[in-house]
Design a protein that fits this description.
about 250 residues; mainly alpha; 11 helices; about 0% strand
């Protein structure tokens, strides 16, 4: 076996182990000693390939997010080409963005549910360095999808679209994280993301059941009536325009 192949295998093994341990324990509680022990390598090997625990976590995400971002952009490109310059349906946009992520959960070669849980957990409790990292990784994708939603919903205030995208991202993060909040509030075990027992040890089943529950929920939230805010005392409240009234049923 060549030295290059050996180094590649060692690097991948470290990444696989780190992905699992970061998911199980969180970033702060996962030590380099735990990673080196489970990966059966010494600390020098981790430092050689990654340099630090922060850099290791970034690389764990980079190898998965590269695939995710490419496929999200490709999905949006295909839909916009098929639309011939016209606006997309909001349901198409959500499927391309969130559905692509959930399909990663079906494929263990792409990290499966281990990666989805890690991503959800990290998004709900991000360290400052990883927040900055995510902002850079997601910038192009988020901008493209925001613009697609703006075109799909021209009569909905853009600020409202951004708020709803924020809520959907939050719902997705908690759903895939399997956090303690789920167990405390509902009594569902941490690994039981499908909400059923016995839990199948099958990423494809878990990911598909999660998608079947979550996608209609997200679309329902996007389609919810626009909020009617209370006006400050003494101010004159304007009647909503016809376009604003109609937009409540168009989302």
């Amino acid at each position: 076996m060549s030295e290059q192949k050996t180094n590649s295998d060692t690097r991948d093994r470290i990444l696989d182990v780190a992905e699992r341990l970061f998911m199980e324990n969180g970033y702060e509680a996962t030590s380099m000693r735990m990673i080196t022990g489970a990966a059966e390598v010494n600390l020098a090997a981790v430092n050689y390939h990654f340099g630090s625990k922060e850099a290791l976590l970034r690389e764990v995400f980079r190898r998965r997010l590269g695939w995710l971002n490419r496929n999200r952009l490709q999905a949006l490109d295909r839909l916009e080409a098929q639309a011939g310059g016209g606006p997309l349906k909001p349901s198409q946009i959500l499927e391309a963005f969130f559905g692509t992520l959930l399909r990663m959960g079906e494929d263990r070669a792409l990290g499966g549910m281990t990666f989805l849980r890690l991503l959800g957990r990290t998004l709900t409790e991000p360290a400052e360095f990883i927040r900055t990292f995510f902002a850079g990784e997601y910038a192009e994708v988020i901008d493209r999808y925001k613009q697609a939603l703006y075109r799909a919903l021209p009569d909905v205030p853009q600020a409202e679209i951004v708020w709803r995208l924020h809520f959907m991202l939050g719902a997705m993060s908690y759903a895939i994280a399997g956090t303690d909040v789920l167990r405390v509030v509902t009594g569902v075990e941490l690994d039981d993301l499908a909400g059923e027992r016995p839990v199948p040890d099958d990423d494809t089943v878990l990911a598909r059941r999660l998608a079947q529950r979550l996608m209609p929920f997200l679309l329902g939230g996007l389609r919810a009536p626009l909020p009617q805010f209370d006006e400050p005392a003494g101010s004159q409240k304007e009647l909503p325009t016809k376009a604003a009234r109609e937009s409540r049923t168009q989302i």
